Amino acid sequence: MDAPARTPDEEEYAAPPVTRMAIAVLALVGLLVAAYLSLYKLGLIGGLTCTVGSCEQVQQSPWATFLGLPVSIWGLGAYAVILTVAVLGLQPRFVEARWVPLALFGMAAVGVAFSGYLTYIEAFVIEMWCMYCVISAILITLIFFLSIPGLRRAR
Hints:
By secondary structure, the chain is mostly helical. About 70% of the residues lie in helices and about 5% in strands. The protein has helices at about 10-15, 20-40, 55-60, 70-90, 100-125, 130-145, 150-155; strands spanning about 65, 70.
């Protein structure tokens, strides 16, 4: 006996969204960037390899710490949670779960806001740039835009 044919809408919702896969990859890259900056901030590596900008000066500025922790540690945690949620969202059990797209969008929105604040600080307060911070800002912005289509599933 054959299984009943699925409608195109059912097939669309049965497969994990490609955007979640892309979010997972971008979050993994962000995790690596944040880990590299965290290793530097914690004194576990000597210096930063920075071909563009003034990464070490930015990392040594007072704005590189937030609520007593290096900003890179906050980024490490944020990217780890985004990666975990994105990978969970790829599992058949959670493909249709409403909380996955809402969580990805919410975390990305907070990340974009915080990253925007840090970019403002770099541009107008300390007037120096860290290429890793810019890369992270681009990554979280891409994650934010990729999380928007998932909101349609959350309705």
